[in-house]
Design a protein that fits this description.
The chain has 665 residues and is α/β, with parallel strands linked by helices. 46% of the residues lie in helices and 10% in strands. It contains 25 helices and 13 strands. The chain has helices spanning 20-28, 71-99, 102-115, 117-127, 130-145, 154-157, 167-173, 192-203, 213-225, 229-238, 242-253, 269-275, 332-343, 357-363, 372-393, 408-418, 442-453, 461-477, 493-518, 534-540, 545-558, 564-570, 577-582, 599-608, 629-638; strands at 50-52, 58-61, 181-184, 188-191, 292-297, 304-310, 316-322, 347-350, 398-406, 432-436, 586-591, 614-617, 660-664. The chain has a nine-stranded mixed beta sheet with strand order 12-11-10-9-7-8-6-5-13, sandwiched between helices. α3 crosses α9 and α7 packs across α8 (192-203).
Amino acid sequence: MPPVFPQASVSNRSLIRTPWIGSCILAAAALTACTLSESKIVDTDKHSAQASSPTGHPLTLLPEFLHDPCEPVNRSIWEVNKGFNNLVMQPTGRVYRGLVPMPVRGSIKDFSRNITWPGRFINHVLQGRWSGAGDETLRFCCNTTVGIGGFFDVASKWRIPKSDANFSQTFGKWGWKPQSYIVLPFYGPSDDRHAIGLAADKAVEPWNYAYPYTIASYASVYNQATDITEEARRISQAEPDSYELVKYAWSYGSKDEQPDWSIKGPVDVPTLQTLSLISITYQDPAFLDHGHEISVRIPTTGRKLKFDYWLQPGPAPLVYILPGLSSHRLSASTLSLAEHLHNNGFSVVTTTSVFHPEFMENASSAALPIYPPVDSRDLLVALTEADRALTAKYPGRFQKRALVGCSMGGFMTMRLGAYENQASPELLRFDRYVAIDAPVDLIHGADCLDAFQDAPKAWPEATRQARANNALHKVASIGALTSAASNVPAFDKTESEYLIGLTFRIGLRDVIYSSQMRNNLGVLQTPLSSLRREPCYQEIMGFSYRDYFLKFAVPYYQKQGIGLKQLTREANLRTHESQLRKQSKIRVLVNRNDFLLPPGDLAWLQVTFPPSQLKVFPDGGHLGNLASPPMQKAVIASLSGMISPSQPASVSSTTHNGHAKITTR
């Protein structure tokens, strides 16, 4: 499963006060995950947010966004901002954090907030918020005197409340509604109102008028940004189109008003539990820093594919993680699983889904992913090259190998395990295959997700668009979630189904866009462009998973001599029942209420695998309990016997010249 939505931030209206890195992270935090990634952009005042088929018939209800008339320019600036963060801010920020202790960085932030008091005071007055103006003035006096110029926040210790205010808030109070989305150099996502507000905010900051205090202003911005450069880099790498991600987050996260939190229909526990995937991420902020990146050349394509890895200090089993459909090696849920395994004594490598553009464009031998025999072989070739490179780089460090897959990654894991003995002997073999919430029938799963996308059809047509927008607004307003269904925010059944369906549909959009940019099959009628994607995204979002199968995959593979019947057979694990029964190294972990696993498929799993190989949890939805203690314990139990004395490597350590490039993150 792709990341549903990044975690939300309740301070979205302060985004514009941070530089681009902060805006990227806080805005992306308004969403997924595992990650609602993106959606179609429309003028929210004038246009319906329905994707259309090539014939113009409305098919898919989509959320509305700020109008983006300057998309090519905005995307160009966005790419420059990403490069600045990844090449300048992230590496220097890591050094800065290592040299300057966190308490010192915190004091600099306190000083920065204190010295910009005039702007908050002026805007409280302009908005008629007299108590806020008084609180901020009292805080300024206390922190400037007792707090030694504001380096120490004594006002908070004395429980004097903070009350933020800026010119964008004031303009909103006066009735200015943002109309157009824009991206500012270095400051990132914005709109017409926030951009003018930012200029006004800077105009009333005292230190912008006297050198050398202006240097302190820049230093303050840098100090604030360095805390989030790593996460900004992760999101920019993990998301196929981070521009769209942040556009969504800005459109809803910067709204002045709150969404309607009322429940207008029955709730559905499985889908609510699935939405708990929002909150799953790695726990140690330094975990990402401790990892390394490896780039290996894929012989079937001649291109390089990246992996990430975390090693134990000595010899240890090596676990490869395959994420869900369209997920990335740096997605939050993938890193959560990697951290858990690493903390329990395993060296870990994270990979990217065969349905993610990164894998498709660098390691796929087919024009598009859909046919498991081809996709699984491409995956195994890539894993083999990564294993060879790591073994050559770290001889004697790895014992047994395991493959752990989630959702679609679990499906691929089970298929690789089933046909292990039929693979070429030079390819990597594993000592354990662990599948978590793997669907049995991909066709059923696709139909289920398509139905979820169309769930809002149950709403009255007159209110359908507003309720869809409100569901997305809720996501942008939510903080961290827990895995218990009772603690998941207020989404009714239709809303939770729609959010899940929309997430997967966006993943499909990225698959179609990437595949057609590389090998246009002539299905799309809209011209493809890397800088102006809105028109083609609108058309692509009108294609369901069944459309993708019938209109893209079937015609392509029919030319390869593979017909509809064969494609359908290979999309069901029941086809491989005899091979799966013989493979004693497979372990399967599933949730009984997973909507991608109907009762008949669960019954088939229970007949196919003995209790020693199959663990069924009573609930959890689809991956919603991935970080729960029972699931984490089961994952480690499924790898029992892996930690043992060194043994011969499962694959030759020979590496080809130029195939591998290993860098420290």
